[in-house]
Amino acid sequence: MSIVKIKDKVFETSISEAEIRQRVKAVADEINRDMAGRNPLLLAVLNGSFIFAADLMRELTIPCEISFVKLASYQGTTSTGKIKEVFGINEDLNGRDIIIVEDIVESGLTMKRMIESLGTRNPASVNICTLLLKPERLKAPLDIKYVAFSIPNDFILGYGLDYDQQGRNLRDIYTLKE
Question: Which of 90, 123, 129, 144 is the most exposed place for a label (fewest CB within 10 A)?
């Protein structure tokens, strides 16, 4: 178990790079099976999901496309609860199968808002794919089809997730030590 210090906080390894790789492949295998014969559009939510989205896409064997949307609701280690769309989607979503690729789903409010927004553009389907899910924090009822890991309500970073924009480059996922 390794320890890292990011700014004023200390974190310890909670999910290794090898475990992440294994679960990303398993999720990709599910998507490959479920979306066979289709051409889904992956909508990766920036900034946190960029590493997960890249690794996931490399494991997909079906035709697929990717685009990015940037939503923000975090400041430091806590969600502000206010979601700001920084930049959105330029693709025509009419009749498309959409897979939202997220780094972490906590309250679910960001996903709920995004699904509502996408629904106005007549997609054939919208599914959620998340690296991490905090089931005990969910405030919005969501059908999250693809989940790599369910985790406790701890603050984490690494593998794209950050603490004040630091730590995204770490290969493992780390949990804040109290």
Answer: 90
Can you tell me the distance from the alpha carbon of 120 to that of 113, in angstroms, rounded to the nearest whole number?
11
Q: Per the structure block, which two tokens stand in for 160?
A: 């794209």
Per-position pLDDT tens, the chain of length 178: 799 999 999 999 999 999 999 999 999 999 999 999 999 999 999 989 999 999 999 999 999 999 999 875 555 555 555 555 545 788 899 999 999 999 999 999 889 988 988 888 999 999 999 999 999 999 999 999 999 999 999 999 999 999 999 999 999 999 999 7
Query: In this structure, are residues 100 and 131 in contact, taking their beta carbons and an 8 Å threshold?
Result: no
Q: Where is 133: in which H helix or E strand? A: strand 125-133
Q: What percent of the chain is helix, strand and coil (3-state, nearest 5)? A: 25, 40, 35
Instruction: Enter the DSSP assignment of 151.
Output: -
Within 8 A by CB and 6+ apart from 50, the residues are: 44, 68, 160
The DSSP H or E segment spanning 57 is helix 50-59
| Tokens representing residue 8 in the block | 């004023």
Quote the pTM value. Answer: 0.91
